[in-house]
Amino acid sequence: MLKLSAVLLNTFKTDEYTNKETGVVTPSRSKLQLLIKKPTKNGSIKQELIDISVKEEVYLKHKDSIGKTIEIDVGYFGQGITFFGI
Q1: Mean pLDDT over the full length of the chain
Q2: Contact 8/65 with Cβ under 8 angstroms?
Q3: Among residues 41, 61, 81, 85, which is most buried (max CB within 10 A)?
Q4: How would DSSP label each residue in 40-57?
């Protein structure tokens, strides 16, 4: 597990989705939009906007922290690194 420190720009919830072929319903998700600082190969810093799905309790904890730097527990996967909330 990692701690991600980033500026919280926005919070939102996705819509519930129903697969038209199977009828399976995917519930809505709570998401945080974060501005992260990502180092590049040449040593400079790139700022990148990412959306992370998080548990409801994490969403509620941070929803009033817009514009502030927050820390959240995350996992990651892939070579390009894709974060997900824990």
Answers
A1: 90
A2: yes
A3: 85
A4: -TTS-EEEEEEEEEE-HH
Cβ neighbors of 19 (< 8 A, separation 6 or more) are 25, 26
How many whole angstroms separate alpha carbon 29 and alpha carbon 14? 5
Q: Report the C-alpha gap between 25 and 68 in whole angstroms.
A: 34
Scan for tokens 């690194």, then name that residue. Answer: 81
86 pLDDT band, cuts 50/70/90, is low
27 alpha carbon, distance to own chain's centre: 17
Owner of token pair 């894709």: 82
Three-class secondary structure of residue 9 per DSSP:
strand
pLDDT in tens, 39-55: 888 999 999 999 999 99
State how far the Cα of 62 lies from the Cα of 2, in Å rounded to an integer. Answer: 18
